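hey all, quick one before standup. I had two proteins in the batch that finished overnight and I want to keep them in one place so we stop losing track of which output belongs to which input. First protein below, input sequence then structure tokens straight from the run.
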Amino acid sequence: MISDQLLLVLKLCLLALLYLFFFRVVRAVWTEVHPPQPVPTGAPGSTPVAPRRRRTDGRSGPRTRELVVVEPVEVAGKSFPLIGEMSIGRAAGCQITLDDTYASQIHARVFARDNQWQIEDLGSTNGTWLNRHKVAGAMVMKPGDVVQIGNTVMELR
């Protein structure tokens, strides 16, 4: 027979799991109803865009593109050179790792196709934004474009 103490512990564990599940559902619904607001470019308080520099290494051709963090201020200026296909998210396996609670584990991917950089959302909860437009499918990025994932804002340079 199962003792009364063991039954009590099992009931409490089941109740805790039920509350955790309920909390996760409410959090997912809340972020769907209240997504993070896209940051308009050139808004007061936003980080100014640095002027583009010409290549000084004597080589011809376009410079290597990079995503540079604009916000949050704590990590502004951090850059991620774009090489091949790169995943963006909170997971340690992502090539671009974000410390952002509104970013999914594997949130989006950036890749080159037809000599253009493109971004694609990978079914994230909060979505990926390119120039204040929600990313649907693969979308082409141009230098100066602003990508927002959760509260992290990056610019393609």
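OK second protein, same deal, sequence then tokens:
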Amino acid sequence: MKRFLTIAIMTLTLATAATAQDADSKYATELLKPGTEAPDFTIENSTAKYNGTSLLSMRGQYVVLDFWASWCPDCRKDIGEMRSMYGDFASDSVAFVGISFDKDETAWRKCVNDSTMTWMQHSELKPWKETRISQDYHIKWIPSMYLIGPDGKVVLATVEIKKLRKALEAISTAKK
């Protein structure tokens, strides 16, 4: 019986470790690799303040790209942490852009307003797989996040918001 219990515990431990594997190794394998030039796009369907802003025009600063949708439970779960990072790191040298795959404009705007997502928001208001930006950035899973460097190249591509926070903390520390 003792032997059976030991084997059962070991099996459970291995199973737990396998499911707790790095989510990037499962869901972020096709995202653009660090050092890749980030494809340019122009903010659409946002507020007048941000409409027409291009990624290219943000050169010289870090840019967080957060790919999400109001209908995505994991995305909604991450909104609070993204809002916290925006409060902690947004500055003249770090910009945030939410990129929604909502096709229902009312649902998208309601989620942005209700969740106090005050950073730049963009949506093509088309189904996810039909958007140019999802093709350009190889988005196969949401939420997905990129950190673009001041030179316009990918610094980090991940589906794990904790990795994004660590990268922003490292940048913040390096600037001090």
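Flagging for whoever picks this up: The CA atoms of residues 53 and 139 lie 21 Å apart. Confidence is low (pLDDT under 50) at residues 1-20.
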